[in-house]
Amino acid sequence: MKILYGVQATGNGHITRARVMASALVKEGIEVDFLFSGRAPEKLFNMEPFGDYQVRRGLTFTVSHGRIDRWRSLTQNNFVQLIRDIRALDLQEYDLIISDFEPVTAWAAKRQKKTCIGIAHQYAFQYSLPGPGVGRIMMPMIRFFAPVQQGIGLHWHHFDGPILPPLIEPQSYPVTQQTGMVLVYLPFETREQIRQWLLPLRDVEFHVYCDIDQPEDDGHILWRPLSREGFRQAQACCEGVIANGGFGLSSEVLQAGKKLLTKPLTGQPEQASNTAVLDYLGLAEVFTDLTAEQFYRWINKPSPTPVVYPDVAAALARWIREGCLRSATELAQELWQGELTKEQRV
Description:
Pfam families: Glyco_trans_1_3. By secondary structure, the protein is an alpha/beta fold. It has helices spanning 12-27, 70-76, 79-88, 103-111, 135-145, 191-198, 228-237, 247-256, 269-280, 292-299, 312-321, 328-336, 342-345; strands spanning 2-8, 31-37, 54-56, 63-64, 67-68, 96-100, 116-120, 150-153, 181-185, 205-210, 216-218, 221-225, 240-244, 259-263, 285-286. It has 2 domains: 2-168 and 310-345, Rossmann fold, CATH 3.40.50.2000; 181-299, Rossmann fold. β11 and β12 (221-225) form a beta hairpin.
């Protein structure tokens, strides 16, 4: 069996899911090729698990000062190139296409009448979730952006629907707690804005991962270049994490049992929903403009109990090898069996 796996590379969460699935699929004897889009090739890092992967321009969004810039997102995407890439992608050698919200592979599969399965957090919006009702807004866009024949959604709770638990990488470093050390990943905010928030909090050491070439120390604010392993080590030993409302990183933080302080990307309905769900489940605190009062209230809270998620990647890889015959409802029931209810978690 041979698969083409398309990954939306705008956010690191999609790439992290693909890393986990890559290993699980190989263990099931499945041959996999990967295609990434939404980020320039030179901006991709730690991509060794994907072998000789392909890159296409795809579609992405532009952020300005912590919010989505709709006009620039529209004008800076190259839709002519997108259509060319869709038409040029030959899927003849593949038995199945998987799309983690990636448009080139999804549309090429639709055009060539190939079976395409979607595996992504976005497909959870097919079902009723707590918080703002963004599903009605998002699902037409999701279906247009990356059309699939079956969408497998992932979330922190099943919410009485066929939604699977998060598909994340197991923590590879011993989990400890270095008091007064906080990990920060706010890729959609400017460095100056992050510095303004963190500068008054001088009794805390902040490790801020961002798009720079070399480490820079600015007193208690330590700026660090993007590194998957460096980030994972910091995540394992920090006291808490400040991050945007992305699904993948939030899942890793919950798994590690770290305090989470999260800011949704303004104008991004998925992150608005994510932070609302985290708040509803009592799993994180949400901010829009960080104040010292809110920060210290958050950092002085006790650390949460780590959330133990089942091996979703292994279950999905087996499901794929067996021909995707079982329903998403069966998969969800199998994977959530024995998991904590919302009432037990809060």
